[in-house]
Amino acid sequence: MRRKELFEEVIRSHGGVAKTADFLSAGIRADEVAALCNEGYITRIKHGYYELSPECDVPEEKLLSVFVPEAILCVESALYHYGYSDFAPRKWAIAVPRTISRTKLSGSVLAIQPYYVETNLYGLGRRTERINGVALPIYDRERTICDCFKYRNRLDSEIFAKALNAYVRDSDKNLKNLSDYAKMLRVSKGLTEIMEVLLNG
Fold this sequence. Notes:
Elements: H1 3-13, E1 18-19, H2 20-25, H3 30-39, E2 42-46, E3 49-52, H4 60-67, E4 72-73, H5 75-81, E5 92-97, H6 102-106, E6 112-117, H7 119-122, E7 126-131, E8 134-139, H8 141-150, H9 157-169, H10 175-184, H11 188-200
Parallel strand pairs: 5-6
Antiparallel strand pairs: 1-3, 2-3, 4-5, 7-8
């Protein structure tokens, strides 16, 4: 197999973004990676990560999964995905463990809005959805609504109100999970008061 074809195969087999280690494990030397990068055949996205230059259309969802594999879509990004908000976030709202390196996030090639979550609550309500063809972790509807209350001071009031009303109308809502999550996330009082009005209004 020709060298460029091997490069292409390695990159495509890793979803459009390959690491230096991926090339090395395929028998491609570091100097060969540098040479093809200088030729413009591949493009260095950030230190140690490459894509094929003619494409340069790797979706942001794929980049997010590669650069921040710990990320779980939450709050604004989750609201938009579930149709609870018409506002397409300018930044990826992601939940990450509080123990994650801040340096890792600051070096991201994407615009992100991190929410640092306690380890014992990080996986609560986590599921996987395909977004733009990429499988990404995302909090379910109930965790997303609870997070709206938890981070209410960071949300636009109109987005907050629209999200709650959209959830109430959603036939896929699970009120038992909502109640359970609210207790665990310590937002039960405020959530119960508002949701009772909306559900019984």
